[in-house]
Specification:
Layout lengths: L3 H4 L4 H10 L6 H7 L13 H24 L5 H11 L2 H11 L1 H4 L4 H5 L6 H37 L1 H4 L4 H13 L4 E8 L6 E8 L2 E8 L2 H24 L1
Antiparallel strand pairs: 1-2, 2-3
Helix pairs in contact: 3-9, 4-5, 4-9, 5-11, 6-9, 11-12
Length: 242
């Protein structure tokens, strides 16, 4: 018996769920495990859904990073990080789970069912990541990437118009992660009358000037300086990798 159908018949509701997900499982047990919440387990042992959720979280981050870089090849590291953060949060993943019908497919314990577990964003987001982890184990990277592309394709395309890029926050996160240090901003020049000021700001990291920025306010100049610094650091990081 070489085909999945010969081994185990597929229930109509499972087939419908797979169509919504965009992937047909070879091993139905993986999908079942991804949709079996810990609250429904009666025997001790590995909490398979949580394991799949752990894997799915990593897979989702990787696949979204790949898709974002493909869609926005000229974006800075800070911009890409902020785009990914806008896509990967509990509320966003819970919406994906509902759109796929995971809220109705997940298996919950009696107590969690009574307390409205099917409506809880935390549980739904976990179920989405667990299903993605199951897809990765069943079909590999290409299958997981294809599903993420389907589920997040429209969101990725319209990201720049939906979020306001905060260059200062992105630079702060990048510097903390890469250098364990925070940038600071220094006004080096200001000119013009009180109603039409023009500011020039330097952004420094450990007393080294990363870049300069200009604007009609200190905040605008700082944002400009941060954007320029992100381009500098992204370029340096590329050189370091090469």
């Amino acid at each position: 018996m070489s085909t999945r159908e010969q081994v185990r018949p597929i229930a109509p509701e499972v087939a419908a769920l797979e169509r919504r997900i965009g992937y047909s499982f070879r091993d139905q047990r993986l999908l079942e495990a991804a949709l079996t919440h810990t609250s429904s387990l009666v025997e001790p042992g590995p909490r398979r859904m949580e394991q799949l959720e752990f894997l799915g979280d990593a897979v989702l981050g990787l696949m979204l990073g790949d898709l974002l870089l493909e869609q926005y090849p000229l974006a800075s590291e800070g911009e890409l990080s902020q785009y990914r953060a806008a896509l990967v949060n509990t509320q966003s993943l819970a919406r994906k789970a509902r759109a796929l019908g995971l809220d109705q497919a997940i298996r919950l314990g009696r107590g969690e069912e009574k307390s409205g577990g099917r409506r809880k964003d935390r549980i739904l987001a976990a179920s989405y990541e667990a299903v993605l982890g199951a897809i990765y184990l069943d079909g590999g990277c290409q299958a997981a990437r294809a599903c993420v592309a389907i589920h997040f394709g429209e969101d990725i395309t319209h990201l720049p118009s939906r979020i306001e890029f905060d260059a200062k926050t992105a630079l702060q996160e990048l510097c903390q992660a890469r250098y364990r240090s925070a940038p600071r901003y220094l006004v080096v020049n200001q000119a013009g009358p009180a109603h039409a000021r023009w500011f020039v700001v330097e952004v420094l990291l450990d007393d080294k000037v990363l870049s300069r920025g200009q604007g009609k306010s200190k905040r605008a100049a700082q944002q400009d300086a941060a954007r320029n610094a992100l381009r500098v650091l992204s370029g340096n990081h590329t050189e370091e990798r090469n």
